[in-house]
Amino acid sequence: MTAFTADDHRFMAQSLRLAERGAWTTRPNPMVGCVLVADGEVVGEGFHVQKGGPHAEVVALQAAGDRARGATAYVTLEPCAHTGSTGPCADALIEAGVARVVAAMRDPFPQVDGAGFDRLRAAGVVVESGLMEAQARALNRGFLSRVERGRPWLRVKLACSLDGRTAMANGDSKWISGEASRADVMRWRARAGALLTGSGTVLADDPHLTVRLAGDAPFAVPLRVVLDPGLATISRGNVRDGAAPTLYVHAHDTKVPQGFDAPRMAAPRGSDGQLDLRVVLDALGAGGINDIQVEAGATLSGAFLRAGLVDELLLYIAPLLLGERGRPLFDGLGVDTMAQRLHLETIDTRRVGDDTRLLLRPKPTA
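RE: above sequence
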C-alpha cells in the first residue's frame, strides 16, 4: 500500500475542492480537478467545466506551461486514455513531462477503466492511486451510479412539518418550508440531471420544476421528467413553458393523443399497474442522466422508497404543526410491524433559515 504524505493529502484535497466547482455544469461528465506541483509549489491547477470543454488536466497543464516538466499531478479521477470530445489526458501529461500522477480513484468508465494508468506507466510515469478515494467517490456518486449500476443516483426532496405532514388535507402546502430552504433547494436542483415528478403533483400544483438561482451562476438546465401513465397532464402549462426540456413518461398501452408532439417515452407497467420505476430509471441512465431529484407527493415518493430505488432523502423540517389531518411524507410503504420498519442513516444535519435540513440514506438490509 502506498504511504501518502501530508502534502499528498493537502494537494488532493485542493483538487477535490476544484472539482466540485463544476457541480452545476459538468454533467453528464464527472467532476474532476487537477493540481500540478513542482518542488512543493503549485504551478498549475484546473477543473473540468463542461462536456466538450478541456479536461482538468489540460487546464492545469496550460496554466503550468514548461513548469509541468518533472511535476506531480494530483487528479481526482484516472486520466482518460481515449479520444472523445477532447484528446487523451494521459497523453497530454506524458507529453508535458509530468513525472508522477497521484489519482484519487480509477475511472470505471469502460473506455478508461485502467487504460489511462497503463498508458502512463508504459511511458515511465510513476502512478499511485487510492488517495482520498472515498471523498472522490462521494463527489461523483451520480456518475458512478450510472456507470457502475446502470441507473442514476436518486434523491427524494420533501418538506414537512414537525409532525411529519407535507400538506394540509386539501393539498395546500405553500409554504411549509421557509425562503432560505426554498433557495437551498434550487442549489440542489442545479446539481441534478433531471427533476422528476408525477402526474398527481402536476395536476394539483402545476409546478415549474426549473432552477432559479440568485446572481448569474452558470448551470446546465436539468431535464424535467413527468411520470404520467395515462398522459392526463398534457394540458398543464408550466412544465411545457420552454424554460427547460420536458420528457413525458407514459405507459406502453396508453393511446397518445393526436397532435401531441412533446418528447415522450413509453414504459411498461409493474405488477401494481403503475409504471415500472426500475425500467424508467434504467432508461434515463442510458440517456446520460447521472442524478435525479424527485419532487413529488407521498404516493410516488413512497413507491420509489418501497421499490428500494431511493439513494438519499433530502428533508426540510419546518417548525410548524399541521395536525393529524395533514398529508404524510410517504404512502404505501407497507410497514405494519416494527420488524418491517425502514432504517435510515443521517448523513448531514444543518440549520437552513428557521428550518432543519436532513440528508438521509437508507441503510442496507442485513
